[in-house]
Amino acid sequence: MADDRTQRPTANADGEIESSAAVKSNRTLFAIIDELQTRGSAGVTELANEIGFSKSTVHKHLTSLEEEDFVVNDGGRYRLGFRFLTIGGTLRDENDLCHQANVKAGELGNETDQMVLVSIKEEGRGIFTFVDRSRYDIKNIILGERFHLHATASGKAMLATHADEEIEEIVDDNGLTELTSSTITDKAELLERIGVIRERGYALNLEERQRGIRAVSAATTHPETGMACAMTVAGPANRLPKQELEGTYANAVLGAVNELELEMRY
Fold first, then answer.
1. How far apart, in whole angstroms, are the C-alpha atoms of residue 110 and residue 218?
2. Distance between CA atoms of 45 and 30, rounded to whole angstroms?
3. N or C: which end of the chain has fewer CB within 10 A?
4. What share of the chain is helix, strand, coil (3-state, %, to 5)?
C-alpha cells in the first residue's frame, strides 16, 4: 500500500502549496499548444505520439481547450483557435510603446517602400509585434514569434541598449545558436559588434538569421518601463545592398526611432 504522504501537495521555495501532478498537467497542456503551433493541425494520436503522453490524457486536454475556444476541432483534427489572437492583440494594443511604434512603422514602410518590422525584448528573446507583409511575404517572420537576439538586426540593436554585463547574462541564459554560416556564435565578437552598434546607432543583419534576408534596425527604450523596442527595414538581400542599408535605410530607421522617442517623452 502506498504511503499517503506521496499523494500530498508539497510546498515550493516560497512556501506555496503546489501539486506535482498539477505542474505536470500544465506542462502537458503547453506541450500540446506548442505542437499544434508547429504542425498547424493534428489528431489525438499524432499529438500523443509526438509529445509522449497517452491518447486519453491528450484528448482530455484538447477537450478543455476546445471548450474555452483555444482550439478548434475540424473533424478530429485540432488546430489553435483565434482566441489566442484576441489575447495577444489586446496585450499588444494596450502596450503604449507597441502602439506608438506600430504607427511609426506604417509611416516608415511608406517612406522606404520596404518590409518594416517592430520588435520588443522580453525575457532574453525578441518578439515581432508588427510585421508589414504588403511588399514581401517572407514566411518565417511571424507576428508574435519569439526570436534569438544575437542573429537579427533588431535583436542586436535592442541588446545595445543594455550594459555589457547584462548582455553576457542574456547570452549565458540563451546561448548563441548558429542559424546560418553568418550568425555570430562567439560572445566576444558579439560584444565587439554591439560596441559598433552603439557608436553608429543602428544594427545590420547580413543574412545571419536566414539566408537571402538582410535588415537594418535601430532601437530605443520606454522612458518609464525600460522596455526595449526596435524598428527594422528588412527584405531580400538582392534588393537591399549593404551600401544602401548603411545609408538610405539606416537614416530612415534612425529618423523613425528618433520621432518615436520624442513622442514617448513629450
1. 17
2. 17
3. N
4. 50, 20, 30
Tell me the sheet residues that pair with 119.
128, 230
Mean pLDDT over 221-244 rounds to 94
What domains lie within the chain, and their CATH numbers? 18-84 (1.10.10.10), 93-265 (3.30.450.40)
119 close to 129: Cβ distance less than 8 angstroms: yes
Kind of pairing, strands 115-122 and 125-131?
antiparallel
Q: Are 251 and 142 in contact (CB under 8 A)?
A: no
Q: pLDDT, tens digit, for every residue of 171-191?
A: 999 999 999 999 999 999 999
User: How high is the pLDDT of residue 19?
Assistant: 54
pLDDT digits (tens, 9 = 90+) for 252-264: 999 999 999 998 8
Q: What angle do CA 37, 42, 46 make, to 5 degrees?
A: 115
At residue 23, the pLDDT reads: 64
